[in-house]
Amino acid sequence: MADSLYIVMPAYNEADNIHETLEQWYPVVERVGGSSALVVFDDGSKDDTYRLMCEFAKTHPRFLPQTKPNSGHGATLIEAYRFALKSGADFVFQTDSDGQTNPNEFWKFWAARNDYDMVIGWRRGREDGFSRVIVTKTLKLVVRMLFGVSVTDANTPFRLMTAQSLRENLSFVPDGFNLTNVVLSVVYAKRREPVKYLPVTFRPRQGGVNSINLKSIFGIGRRALRDFRRLNREIDRRLAAGER
Question: Other C-beta atoms within 10 Å of 8: how many?
Fold first, then answer.
């Protein structure tokens, strides 16, 4: 029986990108086969994102469009991950819906799926602006200082996880937390689970306007410093107690 792959993406006001992104990623779930599916969670977009998703679904049976009230990127990711796990995925792959990632690079991740609990990209030569490079480098330093682990690229939206490891590690992420993928990367590292980093390209945004600008990044960062300290204590407590 073929492995079941669920590709999950959050989307917010991606009307300019969503059709092309779906066209690029849908062939991946077709090729994997079985009960694999592509799932996009619309986070209460104010444009035509969800309408375009529904149009695409009419002719693409492996595409499962979802919508929900706006709650932010991290909270949307949690819902998307839970949806994939509840649907019976064997493997869950997360990427973004803005066209910056390349589906051709997925297959080297898929080839390594049985050797690691998570295969995650590190963004080499990213083309989405110098400020984003600085944010990534700063985040790596903050994670090392506050969590005591070294993570190459903690927030990369290009990660393949086994369902079992995702289910266990997602329980460490508080509901509604904004930096879901960062905490997941930290927990995988703290639990010393087998993780493989592979280089990926990161293209310029293909259209539309990024809802996360530099000002909002600094705002998220200030909150994260406080939340990270609290989370680190809670994660260490649960790991010491042998919880999953």
Answer: 25
Task: Give me the chain's average pLDDT, please.
Answer: 89
**Max Cα–Cα distance, the chain, nearest Å:** 50
165, 81 contact by CB (below 8 A): no
Q: What whole-number distance in Å separates Cα of residue 141 and Cα of residue 89?
A: 33
φ/ψ of 225, rounded to 5, equals: -60, -45
Question: Is pLDDT of 214 > 50?
Answer: no
Residue 187's nearest CA partner among 219, 140, 233, 235 is 235
Sheet with strand 158-162: strands edge to edge: 63-68, 37-43, 5-11, 91-95, 158-162, 118-123, 195-200
Check pLDDT > 60 for residue 228. Answer: yes
The stretch 97-101 carries a mean pLDDT of 91
| Residue 125, amino acid | G
